[in-house]
Amino acid sequence: MKIRRSQFIRTYGPGAIIETPKTPAIILSFDSGVQPSDFLKKVYIIKDPVLESYLKSIVKKYKSDIDPKNLKVKIFELPFSSETQDIRLFAKNFQKWYLCPEHKILWKYDFNHQKDCPECKGENLTKSSPVRFIQACEDGHLDDIQWDVEVHTIYNKNGEFFINKCDSKSFKWKGLGTGTAETKIECSKCGKSITLSDLYNRKLKCTGRFPEKEKPKKKELKTEECKKNANVVLRMASNLRIPEVESIFMVWPRSDEIGSILASNIAMSAEILKVIELYEQGLINKETLKTGFMSSIEKAKNEKNISEKEYDILIKNQNNIEALKPYLEEMKKMERKEYSYRDIIDMEYRNLKEGAVSGVLETGRKYLEINPSKRISKKHMSVTPIDILTVIETQVAYRRLDIDKGNPVFVHKEGDDGTYYFPSIMINGEGIFFNFGNIILNETHTYHSWLDAFNNKNKYEQQFLFKINQEKYELHPGFVFLHTFSHLLIKVLSLYSGYPATSIREKVYITDITSKNPSGGIVLYTATEDEGGALGGLVSLVEEERMKKILNRVINISHTCSNDPVCTENRFTTGKYAGASCYSCTAISETSCDHRNLWLDRNLFNENINLLEGWL
Question: What is the pTM (predicted TM-score) of this model?
Fold first, then answer.
């Protein structure tokens, strides 16, 4: 069975359950379910100090037992199936309890004694399939429901319980109706029974099992004692595995091949910069400059800090070494810096703003290309096409059941030296950059409602709702305006670009949130591995008359909703997560929204249409 790389990063991955033609199976971890086990020698390592630093901060946040000084993080790119036929990731059926649809019998599989339904009596499975109810806990453990224990566990009025001694592994599945209270599981031997409703209301004992950490075709492994209670959950429930994916743009100085190579080896870059400075001071001649440059890159190659291919790319610059200085000076700033999410989005926004005015400095292969000559600017907002946009998407971890209370299970391969290797994809696309110099909003009742919530941000305790918990900038009315505008644009752009709305994604920037009038912008982009990722469907729309039609369409749909007047009368107050917003007007696909379809308000947007002056 094949899964696209983007599906693996955004949806699946270790710990995810997939429905195969034969049976449901769980994808195993990189440490236990990949052959060959040394597959890291055959994959491409993405060298990006900014992303590595950010991922390191995430690991340190949740792994208190790790020495921060010795923690090393790297990113490997998932291979294409056509590139590495010899690398295979395994999945296994972790369930032992099966349900026979013909005889309505729930039974436990045993390789030596019970391979089929007691009534079907086949030598192998005939009609039975794994029961779709399983148990999971917030620490990430997953297992079969222990049906033989739960059916025979009897509770009294005080909540005390005792287990009736019965060794039956076969139960009658009686469904008198469609509700859980009408579905009864009854022991075939002693007659004890329980309804699914009773089971859902119980606090089940967690077995401490991580089936994704088990070896293929090996017996189940109980890895640890767990003090958390487990809950009943459907096998294909969306909250059974909630992936945490980080996406960053390759911006300057990593916006082209040379910059990316230099950024991946800060020590080498520092040596080259020192030689260039000596040359500019007149202390060495041109030949010595060239010798010093060659010595630095050869040293990096011999120490395997750069590959042969990267070495060959650098050699091409030996006759124009001084041109590398702007890159190297930026690399010097990156040395020993720990990057937070705020650092990353500020870096991206600054690069996009500067690129929209003066273009992007580049040498060789481009990871980011912005054409400032096509920029269209009006009083408050400018629109600029992004011809080439490179995105690195990394799946860091996943949680089970509750994204706030659940503990993350990291998705990584641990190297021999303890390095954390996280799976990523590097994909190209295109986009449009909508930038506002200053977001000066009208001080309406809606504006003050959001501003009050922002000023009382501590009332929002759910950390997972916010990109930066200390800031909670999503509550700022400036962000709400941008986010609502972004969703309305995605809906309209899908009608003009040829891309479905589900393939257009957003990135919303806002800075200076402590000031009254922050600045911010939006990037709407598409980046996929197929041909639809860079066909020019978005950048071709950055033409004044077309853009005016698009923005007028945005205004039209912002004033109407099939759920009005109920939707528009939904006024935001502190404690809520959105104002006038629903799936008929502003909510979009979860694959497109970067903020869980929260922090939206048509009322706030409609009260500030003046920011689109000159476009309407």
Answer: 0.88
